[in-house]
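User: I'm new to structure prediction. If I give you an amino acid sequence, what do you actually give back? Let's try with this one:
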Amino acid sequence: MTSTSCPIFFNKGPGFEAKIKRAPGDFIVDEVSSFKGEIKNDDASDSQSNLKRVADEDISDCDEKRPRTSIPDKCVSETVCVELDKNNITNYWNNADWCRLKLEKVLTSETLSNLKKYASETCATLEKGHTSVSAPILLGKYPGRDERIALHRCVRFLYPYLRTVTAPRSGDMSVEMCPNYWKFYNLIGEEKSSEIFQFIHVEVFENLRNEITVDGDFSKEVRRKLHHLIASCFGKFMEARTLPSKENNNPRLIAIRRKPHLVKNNRSASGDEVIITAFTLWKKNCETYGAIHHIGRHLNIPHNMFNFAGIKDKRAITTQKCTVTGISPQKFAAACKSLPKYLKVSNCHLVSRTIRLGELRGNRFCIRLTSIRNLNADTDGCSVIQSVERELDNVKTTGFVNYFGPQRFGRRIENSENEPLLTNLEAPAIGLAMLQSNFSKAVKFLLMPTESTHRSSDEANAAKLHFQKTKNVEETLRLMPSNKMREISVLRTLKRYASIDDEACAKALLGLPYTARLLYVHSFCSHVWNLMATSRLIKYGDVVVVGDLVKKTLDSNAPDETEIVIVTEKDIAEDTFAMKDVVLPTPGSQVSYPPCLEAEYRDALVGFSIAENHPFRIPALKLHAPGAYRKLIEFPRELSHKILPHKGSTKSVPNENSDRALSSDVAGKIECPEEEGDNKTDNNPSYKTEESPRWEDFDMELRFELPPSCYATTFLSELTKGHLM
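Assistant: Good question. You get back a string of structure tokens that encode the predicted 3D arrangement of the chain. For your 725 residues, that looks like this:
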């Protein structure tokens, strides 16, 4: 069920056997979106839209929100904004007075004094031509993301020659001299260097400006060096070019701008509004990446122009909110009318920004369990129903272990070359190789055969096996089935570079969508989380212990305002927390491990050849895994069930034109047709009466809602005690 060899079941019931996903219509998932991108208002003023955009951008981009405690931005800046509004100032981040007042509100007077003194000493050191300065100074611990961003922006704007550094996990924030500033200072002086650094580190990231021009009487050699400096220090997202002066044709203006394809959300490189369309995607028996790839190819739109909150099951019927950049709702809807039957697009409308990964409140499920039977084959049908209902009652009250489901990890690798594997699951193995910066091994794992379940898998495995034997990229590309988009993308890049060395493999992986690359790293971290969850329950059982991490709500009126605290002996004595409050972190740079499991986390990571101080950053792939806190025990919401006749019986079953087979309110009135991909039933199905069904004669419909990143297959495995087929 999970990546662990021995998952723990939280309830002590006997469980039962059942089958799922006989057909896509047996597994229906509807996303509960939390996307709040406001519909654009053409009459709104620029300043209003800018302030709304800044507020909208305060959303985490990871697949789970990390709880944080922070000083709300409004309580820091309300007074400041009132004063500055009198001077008609709207762009606060690039206003020195506003930044100074912001620092005065956030920092203590002593810390602010130390910061000013350190900045003065650094400035004097630069003027003397020295590169060595005193040790960094500590600003304090700021666990809130809002506070860290505010400090970072204000320090970088007021003191461009300084930079802020946040220590992994601890949240301690310090200030030190920026080494790159020294290079620019020596070449073009303080004034021009400060202008460039303020633009890049503050104005670009706040979408205040996307381009500046630096004017100066620069020689050709200085211009050449400046271009090289910008490329080497900021080449991933900035570019520079030389322009002729307006007064004469001598090239003396240097234009620096954000790279056009990296312009953030709703602004183009020229500062013009970019059209962003939100839509609802309906798909059947198709991967999310495959659906987006097909729509993009159909409309001739690059896949990186699409955004979505999460990945949905393949063998299912699912709906989810997505956004696409650069096309109007009318054109997008019209072009999508000719999509194949398994894809539909609806509810197209303009929004102010793109949706982000993890921006959802959960998922609603409607699942049909078939061929239900008791683990004891001699038990009659009535006892089976009683067992099922008893398990449902148990899980409502006690919950289930919140393991990451098997969809997170992909299939098992068929290791034909006896390659030493730290994990034989495809996605975690690739993610681990990425974290080790062993990109050729990551590509090798991606192109290794996996467990085969259908014909396209057999064809893909044949192509992968050919690559393992011959290393012939061109032939493998020709053999690879067209639905294997990731493998094809990687092979095309390797063909372009005519190499399979580490550098070419890094470029090939970088060509994958950002969310796909991130998913591999998250998959490995999820694998470790599953191992730690099992270790925690084996070692301490189902009680809260000293050293556990728990999520504490700060305000009963604001349940989203939480912080992570360590359980103390006093908490145990006062019975302050329950198992539903316990959280475990996925490994990352910004999480703390529970004291009661610190050794287990360290041993697990070292066992995977990950150093204890690993930064969880992969610059070559532009990836960062900050980590997140995940509840150990979760509960289904709005859980209900209905006993149905077996799908192969002569009795009628609920159906909604086969595409919403379980969500119809006209149960029993529509005959259920055989869907493509259904397992065929026996020619003479046995069926008695509804009062006394045999185990092969009845199914069950389950409806429930789960929080984000919580897996229905994990919940169902708890009900069946692992006997889910």
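You can read the tokens as a compact description of the fold. Here is one thing that stands out. The first helix runs from residue 46 to 56.
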